[in-house]
Amino acid sequence: MTTGWARIIEESDMSSFTQTIKFKIVIAFGACVILMVTIGLFGAFGLSKLNSNMNEAYSSNTVAISDLSDIRAALLFIRLQVRRIQIDRNPAKMAEAVEAIHSDQDRLSKAWDHYHQTEISSDKEREIAERINNGLPQFKARTDEIVAAFNAGNYDGATQLIDKIGPVADAVKDAVNQDVRLNIEQARKFAQDSESMFRTILWIAVALIGFGVMVAAGASLYLLRAISNPLKKAVDVANQIASGRLEN
């Protein structure tokens, strides 16, 4: 019996608490806090997705384009130096040009190793990369043969080798250009996806803010009523007491 009365008293106290102004204030501010946290978490999620897209675009495409550009430049400079030696036939200038060729070969090798090991991001790109990978050793071997012929003073033999290296170099250059275009297209798609995601996040954020304003306005009205109604009753009672009407 005592337990039953205790339960009734507890339920009565809980019912009374839910009718208090303090409880209503807690409910109103709790709803506002939950909404603020929701908006903040959504904003953090959106920024995280955009950051992820930007990092992926940089690591998968921008760095790849940079490496491929170095490879393309090295190919062109090597062929340029070979032609300079062929035209000048000057031993002093030849030594300088050969040194430049070796430097460009090192740059080409480093750029290709970095790209081939870490930057390929699709099957189509891998297919193009294999064409480049098959052509580069041939290009290097022909270049070394040309340099050896020049060092031996065999300019006529070097000229014949230069004519043979052209198709190999052109095939590698065309594959590199195709790979660059592919990476540019992939980067463009990343940019479009990021823009689309930004618009979606923006509109959802605007909707959440609008909903937040409505909730805040509703909470304000709710609190005004919760406070003003008891206050009005208290004022009425005070007026009745002041006028001497004490029967209620």
UniProtKB/TrEMBL annotation:
The chain crosses the membrane at residues 21-45, 201-224. InterPro entries: HlyB_4HB_MCP. Keywords: Membrane, Transmembrane, Transmembrane helix. The keyword Membrane applies. It comes from the Bacteria. The keyword DNA damage does not apply. Gene3D superfamilies: 6.10.340.10. Residues 20-198 form the Chemotaxis methyl-accepting receptor HlyB-like 4HB MCP domain. This is Chemotaxis methyl-accepting receptor HlyB-like 4HB MCP domain-containing protein.
